[in-house]
Amino acid sequence: MNSVHLTGRLTKDPEVRKSTRGNDCVHFTLAVRRRFHKKDDKDSSEDQQMPKQNADFISCVAWNGIARVIGNNCKKGSRIGITGPLQSRSYETNGTTKYLTEVRVNELDIFDFKEKEELPESDLNGTSVNEEEMDIY
């Protein structure tokens, strides 16, 4: 089974763009907290560990309806939950082949919306979206 479930924060404002085939697309990076314990250097006791936080930065892509929802309702720092398969792809730039692994978002939960005055009139009333409810292809 290839399914990724993540909750994190957007690292920048999302920009919806058109693909060469005319589909709406948004690429974004999700900062996901990772907790771990590190031994406190001041205390030599093995039992004394201090919780530390770090973040992983995960590349994601959303298409059509979900891309529009993210573009219209989220901004840098918005907390969202995503679900989708992990996919790898490659592309060429300046004669060099680049490889990318990303999550293709097919379900979305928005926990932090843009401020009310920033939202368009046609905003969603709910907070959960999945690709079966949206025109994504």
From the coordinates shown, what is the CATH architecture? Beta Barrel
Main beta sheet, described? 9 strands, mixed
Q: Which superfamily, in CATH terms, is the homologous superfamily? A: Nucleic acid-binding proteins
Q: Distance between termini?
A: 22 Å
CATH topology name, in short, is OB fold (Dihydrolipoamide Acetyltransferase, E2P)
Number of DSSP E strands: 9
- List the domain count as a whole number: 1
Q: What is the number of helices?
A: 1
Shape verdict = globular
Q: Helices and strands: which structural class?
A: mainly beta
Low confidence ranges: 121-127, 133-137
Considering DSSP H and I runs of 4 or more, what fraction of the residues is helical?
under 10%
- The radius of gyration over CA amounts to 18 Å
Give the SSE order as H and E letters: EEEEHEEEEE
The CATH class is identified as Mainly Beta
Strand residue percentage: over 45%
Mean pLDDT: 83
Short characterization:
This protein is mainly beta.
Describe this structure in words.
- This protein has 137 residues and is mainly beta.
- It has a single domain (4-96, 104-130), classed as Nucleic acid-binding proteins (OB fold (Dihydrolipoamide Acetyltransferase, E2P)).
- The protein contains 1 helix and 9 strands; from the N terminus they run E-E-E-E-H-E-E-E-E-E.
- Strands 1, 2, 3, 4, 5, 6, 7, 8 and 9 form a 9-stranded mixed beta sheet that branches.
- The protein is globular, with a radius of gyration of 18 Å.
- Residues 121-127 and 133-137 have low confidence and may be disordered.
